[in-house]
């Protein structure tokens, strides 16, 4: 069962539905050319989401991610920060930590 997915820096313009990956804990799609995110509410276990350096104007795809703990979204032309973001968020007004996706590594897979 896949828990970590790093598809950063692949020039992706869109993401297909990720509903089948419902056990994902960490998703990194940084450095692509995404202008929107698919709805991610089925990723109930997602704790870390990195969308740095894309073309996102909104983060509407993250609504419903109640377990999200860290969000990295710098480098996007966001029109507004997410309405209900996690405690650690580099694009929200309520920054509570200096640790973001750009400076941390993805969690290591356990064997």
TrEMBL record:
GO terms, molecular function: signaling adaptor activity
Keyword vocabulary terms for this entry: Leucine-rich repeat, Repeat
SUPFAM superfamilies: L domain-like
InterPro entries tied to this protein: CDIRP, Leu-rich_rpt, LRR_dom_sf
Name the record gives this protein: CCR4 protein
Lineage: Eukaryota, Sar, Alveolata, Dinophyceae, Suessiales
């Amino acid at each position: 069962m896949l828990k970590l997915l790093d598809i950063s820096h692949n020039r992706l313009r869109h993401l297909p539905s990720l509903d089948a990956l419902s056990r994902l804990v960490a998703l990194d799609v940084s450095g692509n050319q995404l202008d929107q995110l698919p709805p991610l509410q089925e990723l109930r276990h997602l704790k870390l989401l990195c969308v740095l350096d894309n073309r996102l104007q909104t983060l509407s795809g993250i609504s419903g991610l109640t377990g999200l703990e860290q969000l990295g979204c710098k480098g996007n032309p966001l029109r507004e920060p997410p309405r209900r973001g996690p405690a650690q968020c580099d694009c929200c007004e309520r920054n509570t930590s200096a640790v973001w996706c750009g400076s941390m590594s993805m969690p290591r897979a356990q064997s």
